[in-house]
């Protein structure tokens, strides 16, 4: 996975505890430390869990290898035009890095197989954060994980299949009737470029948590959770606004740091120019 982004969960006493799944290899990334998780029989997030995001990879659907009867792609066809996001591979993984064998120092660590969320479920994501694990008003000690849609790995768009090869037509520029490619923003599950996804820390169930529906394509920059007020903050790469979201996924308000923040530091205000992505 390229351009990994990580987030840690720590134990109550500040130390790391061991989780319960086998194998894998991971170069440790600096992460965000959170509060305790209590033992529970079924869960995907343990003390010492680290969430990592990255591009899910690509695939040429229905591709026949060169040594088959169809001998791969027809002559003159650019492979890039037939290459699509692989929706079956992970864009988010939760690793158990509780068994380091010593203090974290950038070493390689053998890890159990991670819990994975695929591109067909949530599309491509980047910013991640955990909540406080409060469920129905009661602390559970097991946080939920949140991930924001991203255009970090590029924007891929398609138009309907025009050559009867069973694949949509990949477009390199905006075109009439274009849509985001499957696996880009989780549109198959109602997602979009402004979506924040929730992954239940106990069951692993994926759901749409919040939507910044004015985001036209750039996506969400980063997420954070304010445990004191039980609110989320999401930076919007389209408008430049920072959105405040309540614990139920409802938008509370937004802060324009270009207009309201810069003058407090003696800088001229800079407003959003209103440009949007038109695919």
Task: Describe the protein.
The chain has a domain at 5-56 and 89-153 and 192-265. The protein is 3% helix and 31% strand. It is built from 2 helices and 21 strands. The strands form 7 sheets. A 4-stranded antiparallel β-sheet has the order 1-3-6-8. A 4-stranded antiparallel β-sheet has the order 9-12-16-17, with no helix packed on it. A 4-stranded antiparallel β-sheet has the order 18-19-20-21. The model is unreliable at 10-40 (pLDDT under 50).
Largest sheet: 4 strands, antiparallel
- Low-pLDDT regions: 10-40
Order of helices and strands: EEEEEEEEHEEEEEEEEEEEEEH
Radius of gyration from CA coordinates: 21 Å
Strand order of the largest sheet: 1-3-6-8
